[in-house]
Amino acid sequence: MTMWIVLFVYLAVMLGIGFYCKHLANSVSDFVLGGRTLGPWMTAFAYGTSYFSAVVFVGYAGTFGWSYGVAATWIGIGNAVIGSLLPWLILGNRTRIMTKHLDAKTMPEYFEKRYDSKGLKIFSALIIFVFLIPYTASVYNGLSRLFKMAFDIPYEWCIVGMAVFTAIYVIVGGYRATAMNDFLQGLFMIVGIIAVIVAAITGKGGIVSALNGLEEQGEFNTLFGPDPINLIGVVILTSLGTWGLPQMVQKFYAIKDKGAVKKGTIISTLFAVIVAGGSYFLGGFGRIFATPDQVAQNGTDYIVPTIIETMPDILIGIVIVLVLSASMSTLSSLVLTSSSTLTIDLIKPFTKKMTDKKQVITMRIFIAVFLLISVGIAIFTITNPKTIISTLMSISWGALAGAFLAPFLYGLFSKKITKAAVWTSFILGVGLVVAHMIYFTLLGNTWTLFGINMASAINCGAIVMLLSLIVVPLVSLFTPKMNKQKVDEAFACYEANQQD
User: Fold this and answer.
1) How does pLDDT run across 229-243, given as a tens digit for each residue?
2) How are beta strands 452-453 and 448-449 bridged, if at all?
3) CA atoms of 207 and 221, how far apart (whole Å)
4) Rounded CA separation 222/226 (Å)
5) Phi/psi at 95 (nearest 5 deg)?
6) Cα dihedral across residues 156, 148, 134, 34: positive or negative
């Protein structure tokens, strides 16, 4: 009963915020970016809660905690430094200034106006729509496993219920409702992860006893774990990936001013240390809670629910709200990104006289469509024990960040990047990830090179991201330059904002 009360109160608050923000989501700018007026706390929490969902807490923490032990905590540290601190420092203010100057509301609009190409806009919009779907499915899967454990509700009902509640408050309130909910959800996540870690470790006799228990099973209590080479690939994918994910960098579009960026940098980094660091640290002790036979039968996504199910009802209720908070915030960000991209970047260019009102209505419709598609995929994949959360997320992040990271980053700083280089990055990122998925994930082939598991979707994503950072400037050296006047116009915003 306690868990149900906690859950109902939480959901009521989320919906209340959505309807409260309804009158503030009538224009495209308000619906997609909150009018570009959000302060540091809301933007930082929106960034962090979009970053960390059930995928991290259930999927990645369980999978990589099992593989690397407490060394998996390095993934959380990488997320805090490379995935939160550095993008806020390097991308935050320049993204805010240039996207406002170009009047770009989405990442495809940024590519169109920065590189003077409608083709780049359309192709990048298609990439976003296609590859956000497996990420969304992975979020559903992570949450439904915990609901199954706590409430004994069938997976399918968990997935459908979560989609309905997310759809209501996003469709009604837009980005401002999402950001306000993200702030409250972030607070739940911080309190929840600390409470769970303390309860779990205390239940095993304290930190020393828990570490001794890991030592009995191998190098799982050591600083770098049993497989540091492949651990690096996880750090790169889950940390560097945020630099090129549309649902992440678009948070910088909406922030109010340079002062808010500075404060948001600190808040976002501390949030990541607690939530990501805590999640992976907890997952690192998975081997003293679950047996190899249990994991072989149920998969690594089973580990974190196993850690949780022995706790008191009130704590399980807190955990459910924690993961629900993380998941709904990520989902709302994904569906808002996808629907705005479809409407602004794919439909509006081919529709004459599409007013602000019609665009907002269309986005609301596509939010529902996107959720329906991802629900179908989530229900299909969760019945397949070979489909694990980390694989779905890795494919999504690898394709999106592999395609977008370098063109987005270099486009903010260099006037020398060419259209051909951007096209190369798009094709290379998506092409390599899809080819890898077919050859290794679907056909089941294996390959190890210098100790690196080349069949891993995670390592593939990491390699594609690093490759794009090399290929884009290299291709730009040998391909036709962009119109100088167009490029100078794009970069004029930085001169006009030298004091900002």
Assistant:
1) 989 988 998 899 899
2) antiparallel
3) 11
4) 8
5) -65, -45
6) positive
CA dist., res. 32 & res. 340, Å (int): 7
Give the residues of the chain that fall short of pLDDT 70.
Answer: 1-3, 24-26, 33-37, 54-55, 137-151, 155, 325-326, 352, 381-390, 392, 496, 498-500
DSSP letter for 348, please: G
Phi/psi region, residue 174 (left: phi>0; alpha: psi -120 to 50; beta: rest), is left
**DSSP, res 483:** P
Residue type, 55: V
Report if residue 426 sits inside a domain: no
**Alpha carbon distance 218, 203 (integer Å):** 21
Which of 137, 201, 88, 75 has the alpha carbon at shortest distance from 370?
137
The SS3 call for residue 331 is helix
Q: Are 368 and 167 in contact (CB under 8 A)?
A: yes
Q: Which tokens in the block code for residue 479?
A: 């391909």
Number of domains composing the chain: 1
Bridge partners (DSSP) of residue 453 are 448
Domain extent, residue 73, equals 2-387
Residue 233 lies inside a defined structural domain of this protein: yes
Indicate whether 293 belongs to any domain. yes
Residue 73 near residue 285, CB atoms below 8 Å? no
Q: Residue 452 gets which letter from DSSP?
A: E
Helix (H, G, I), strand (E, B) or coil at 453: strand
Helix, strand and coil content of the chain, in percent to the nearest 5, comes to 85, 0, 15
Cα separation, 357 vs 40, whole angstroms: 29
Residue carrying structure tokens 């303390």: 198
CB atoms within 10 A of CB 2: 13
Element (H, E) at 448: strand 448-449
- Name the nearest CA neighbour of 54 among 132, 141, 133: 141
For residue 478 the two structure tokens come to 């040998």
Residue 40 within a domain: yes
The DSSP code for 65 is H
Q: Do residues 379 and 155 touch, judged by C-beta distance below 8 A?
A: yes
The CATH number of the domain holding residue 191 is: 1.20.1730.10
| Rounded Cα–Cα distance for residues 300 and 286 (Å) | 9
